[in-house]
Structures are given as C-alpha cells and as structure tokens.
Amino acid sequence: MTGRLNGCPMSNYPVPFNSPFELGVRMIFILMSVYPHSLDLQQLLFLDYAAIYSGDLGGPESLHTPVPLRGAEYTTRRIIIEQGLYLMSGRRFIDVKFGDSGIEYKAGENAAAMLGIIGGNYSWKLKERCRWVAEKLGDKSAVDLQKLFTHEGHRWGAEFVSPSSDFNEE
Question: CB of 114 within 8 A of CB of 28?
C-alpha cells in the first residue's frame, strides 16, 4: 500500500538516506542554529547543502563525501525537504509562519528537546557545521544565496570534467 505525504507518493519501504524524516531533522538543526530567526524554503535548501558540503564553501570538512555533480543536490531535494518540514511541524519541532514575504520556518517549541535526544558523532558534527553555516550564511537572503551558489557552484558540478577534453576526437 502506498500513501501520500504533502501530495507526493510514498512507499511503505523506508528510505535510508535523504528521507523526509532525515531531512526534516536536518532542518531542525539548521533552524536551531539561526534561532530566533526564520528562513524560507529556498534559504533552507541552500543552507542544507552548505551544512553537509561545508568544505565546498571554505568551511570545515564536508560532512558527506563530496561526490561528482553534487551541485545539483540542492535543487533536487526541494520536495523531500518540504515533506520533512511538514513532518516536523506536526510535532512542533518546526513552526510555520505565513507572512507578507511568504512561508517561513522557525525552530519550534520542541526543537531543542528533539536535538537533545539525538546523540552520536554525526549529530555533533552536523551541529558544528550548522553553527558554521549560521555564522557564515545565516543572514543572507535567498537571492544572495542564489548568487553565491551560481558563482561557486560550477566547481561542484563540473569538477571532474576537463574543459579541454574533446569528445569528438577519434
């Protein structure tokens, strides 16, 4: 049997990586790092990428292995992040604000408690990366983040392709 979450189909089989739950928890880490400020979905997309691939932006060593063409990840996760935000807002880990500038998300009243029960080395490193992201990028608008990622992103998407290669050679 397949259900739907936020209008998107979901199977009954757990997704081990990049699931709505995992990304929702990561959103709590990010939102706690910028608390009491709120962020929109576009900012969260960019800051999520920056938290897990912080080395790409001159920060601490990347949390995840830098894979080729990873630059597209911040655009392909939008729906999953939306699903994660929906999941976490239902338990008051994340608050949703509807304002003049659109929908914004903020760490909810239960966010600190949730992060307090998550232990382990990965969690500690993620919290450290999120603090770095908040200091470096937390005050940037979605437009400023888009400019930064457009300017720097070419290095992450094409880093293993030599621009001098001629694929027409025989």
Answer: yes
Q: Choose from 26-35, 111-120, 160-169 the range with maximum mean pLDDT.
A: 26-35
Cβ atoms within 10 A of the Cβ of 39, count?
A: 20
Q: Which amino acid is at 124?
A: W
Whole-structure pTM value: 0.80
Helix pair angle (78-89, 20-34), 10° resolution: 70
Report which of residues 70 and 138 the model is more confident about: 138
Spell out the domain ranges in the chain.
Answer: 17-157
DSSP string, the chain: --EEETTEEE-SSPPSSS-HHHHHHHHHHHHHHHTT--B-HHHHHHHHHHHHTGGGGTSSPPSS---TTGGGHHHHTHHHHHHHHHHHHTTTSEEEEEETTEEEEEE-TTHHHHHHH--SHHHHHHHHHHHHHHHHHTT--HHHHHHHHHHHHHHHHSTTS-TT--TT--
Burial (0-12, 13-18, 19+ Cβ within 10 Å), 162: exposed
> With 70 as the cut, is the pLDDT of residue 154 above it?
no
Q: How far apart are CA 155 and CA 33, in angstroms?
A: 27
Beta-carbon-side half-sphere exposure of residue 86 (alpha carbons within 13 Å): 13
